[in-house]
Amino acid sequence: MRPKFLVPRLNEWVVPRDRVRNRLAALCARHPVVWVVGTAGSGKTTAVVDMVTRTDLDTVAWLTLDESDMAAGRLLTHLEAAVAVVDDRLGRSASEALRRGVPHVEAAALLAEALADLSVTIVLDELEVVADAPGALTTLGAFLRALPGSARIILISRRNITLRVGSSLGVGGIGRLEENDLSLDIDEATTILQQFHHVEHIDPADAVRATGGWITGVLFEAWRSPEHAHGHGGEADPLSGYLSAEIMADLTATQQWFLTATSVLEHVTADAAISLGLPSAQETMASFRGRFLPLWTSADGSELLCHPRFRQYLRRRLDNHPVLAEDVHRRHALLLLDSGRPADAVEPAFAARDLPLARRAVEAAVPGALARGDVALLASWLGRIDARFVEQSVPMIRGELLIAVDREAWSRGAEISDRLLELNRTEVDRGGLEPSLVGVMAACFSHVGRQANAMDVLALARPSAITDAWISGIGLDAVGSELHYRDRSPDCGEAVDGMLHRFDLVHGRLTLLTDSAPAPWNASRSSRVGALRASGRLHEAEELLADWSEPELSPALNRMRVELLLDLGRNEEAMVLLSESGEVARRSSRYCHQLHLLLSASVALRYRNDVGTARRILAALDRDPTSNQHRRVVEQLPLWMGLADLLSHRFDSAQTNLTHSLDYMLRWDRQLYVPFAGVYLAEAAWHAGDESLVDRAADAALAAAEIQGSDHLLLQALSEFPLVLSRRLDTESCAPAGWRRLGRGLLSRRRRSQPRTDLGLPVVRIRDLDKKCIELDGREVDPKLSRSTELLAFLTLPRHRDGVPRSAVLYHLFDGSTDDRAQAYLRRALGGLRNVLGPNCVEVVDGRLRCAMPAVFSDYVEFTDVAAESLLTRGPNRLIALDRAISMSGTDYLPGSTADWAAEIRRELDLERESLRAEAAEAAYEAGDLLGADDRVRAVLNNSPYRESSWRLAMRIAGDLGHDDRVLELFRACRDRLAELAAEPSRGTVDLLGRLRR
């Protein structure tokens, strides 16, 4: 068993520290995640080992990280191995998921979920080694977020590291043991110095005062060094000088070289040391027994482990002897290769400057890296090997293909695929290539416009469900293919499903992606992002996007991010991203560049009204001979040409282009863009005088929204041409019921500017529903003045995000007063905010106050956003979305505030809550839950007795339940209530009574 998976053993001279053990045990009892953070030599690992070995814990899984764990796949498989040490029934869920192409974050969640019902404490030591590895940190964050309640985790690190752990852990779920907890007090220092008989010549109080309680400084007297930084835990690193002058100088040359050479080993045994060229290893190791050194030796002297800080010092000594070091690294690489650890052998082989050995190690390590999805690691290996050797190695060139596809470098992937087919000529002739490999090559060929080659290479694959899925996926987007969406291959549980899910998105089957259990593949997850965005579930889309460490490298994700930013109202960011991502798309493939150009044209038309730029883009695209090979291009090119014509008042041309686009979409059941094509065509046809086409086009748009399960895209199109909705409502007697519901959705629609959470800055949340406080990164902070909280809430209202004149702030927050007393009170309120949130939280420029923090959330604003999103939801999920919004509405806004603006928001909140409850009653009725709908509508009418639409719903429910007398009773109650307002039931209510009584 490798030591990295074992709880470290403590030397017999380690002194237990009850204070630290009890503090750490208490933190673990209260928090699922505990950080132990301190400088090197502060006793972090010793404290955790002492706690887990002396406390009644059921099971402990330990993983000591090293440089190999910077690769997310290796970190995950090592974490899996560590857990398997304590329970081998857990199997290899993560490794198997990675082998099937599941992304690291999803495989991490699967591993965490496999721990359900297992009471386990997981310890990750030396976490600082992955501090600069975003992929590893993202993977670890996913593991933490998915941990079951039966598991706890302890993270040991020399530095603070930011992990995305989610709100459930981020608020109260994390405990911390820090430098001040680990530092020795005088009593502990006395006990330790007595243990080593140092107390006679060292005053414990002097040692603690000089070192700040840094345990290694006290233990090894490093504080006596003139370089020691007083009270700073040894950051000035006097320990290296002390180790050289006092520890190493006391050893023989043989002992010194033994420790220096074996520092490349994580676990020193006699056999391993002999492999490094140290023939008298057994005797040398035995000579360390009984000596006061920062290392551990087994009772029989056959094993040795150095303290991590001591080992780092020894590695630096080895590097100072480059010729000797190269021989040690070469022997180490051979030892690792012979031990079946080729991935670990790669770096030692490169360090030895032995390129043939490095090529051998890389070639042997490629299959494992492919199975783990460690693309960045693989790229770093292959980038250091001469291209001539890579092109002659099937494993290496397969690695090159994976790198290209992972980076969506489809053009490069096509070149590699050609070379791979040449190298695999024997298997090609047999017609038995691996389906997953063939599918990837076909996708590369398709992206560069080689559709015939794509279908030819698919014919070389072994028959299987995976092969069928690839044929279906390539065919669904290929012009000339007769495959229809109804012919879509079923999911087969492999990475190719991600491509099929991408076609679920472009065919408008959004609920298949948003409402079912999410598939783990990267393409599936990005398709889910697109579906959430297209459904108006913008918060969820943004949250899911946060799991990508480098989304800017993906043309597909860039397009989705541009659309999401536009929907969030962050137009300037969207324009910058659109401009910057053009080169990424161009390098990726001709197809990706075409899709980027289509998006650029649509943005120019829809957001800038820049018809000239859009026409130039579309004309260039139309001249591209490969623009007619993909259905996504063929359907959108006339769509945006038609919109350009429509905005130019060229209505006949617009009708021709848009008719062609809509007919093509409907023929192949590609519903995603139908709301736009339908609304635009309805507007063009109305101007062209084709009234029959107006209704047909508009109703096609409405039907597409029904298929999508959301009004979000339809309302976007209608907000651009609202008269399309007005004209349909003018014919209410024959217009489908869906049109009548869209009016309110259009009114509630607004461009929203969402807080930024992607900048690594502290997150501020204003608790303004049923509470009045401010939280900073999940912890409540106190600005002392209640008006400080009200001021921040006022400035973060959507209508105030561009700033508010000082006079208006004074008027609204201080009862209309602008005198010196109010001015002083405002300065105090601002000072309170700056004390807890930083000096730049609110800026005052040209007499205007503006909240300057990008990551500020408000319960009230979040409720209004979720409420608006719920009104866009269609189908069975509408009721769920409405109930979620209602549950977030609270009962009071800024309790205790007497400000008029706060009272106005309370009134708006009450109206919005009742409106949502009325919509929820309608949704329950549409879902067939008559009794539930009846209960809901009764509650609405108790609070809002003048809401005539709710009286009509109550009448319909009574009629459906067969309560004819109650129908009449409800009508009379409605009439009586409206009479109180000198009003009477509308013609629609009277007609409903007549229909229900027949």
Quick summary of this structure?
The chain has 998 residues and is an alpha/beta fold.
Question: Can you tag this structure with a few keywords?
Answer:
53 helices; alpha/beta; 998 residues; single chain; five-stranded parallel sheet; 15 strands
Give a structural overview.
It is globular, with a radius of gyration of 34 Å. It is α/β, with parallel strands linked by helices and 998 residues long. The strands form four sheets. Strands 2-3-4-1-5 form a five-stranded parallel beta sheet, sandwiched between helices. A four-stranded mixed beta sheet has the order 11-10-9-15. The chain has a three-stranded antiparallel beta sheet with strand order 6-8-7. 60% of the residues lie in helices and 6% in strands. It is built from 53 helices and 15 strands.
How many DSSP E strands?
15
pLDDT averaged over residues: 86
Q: Taking Cα atoms only, what radius of gyration do you get, to the nearest Å?
A: 34 Å
Q: What does the oligomeric state look like here? A: single chain
Distance between the termini: 82 Å
Overall outline: globular
Largest sheet: 5 strands, parallel
Strand order of the largest sheet: 2-3-4-1-5
Please count the helical segments. 53
Query: Residue ranges: pLDDT <50 for 5 or more in a row?
Result: 222-238
Residue fraction in strands:
5-15%
Structural class: alpha/beta
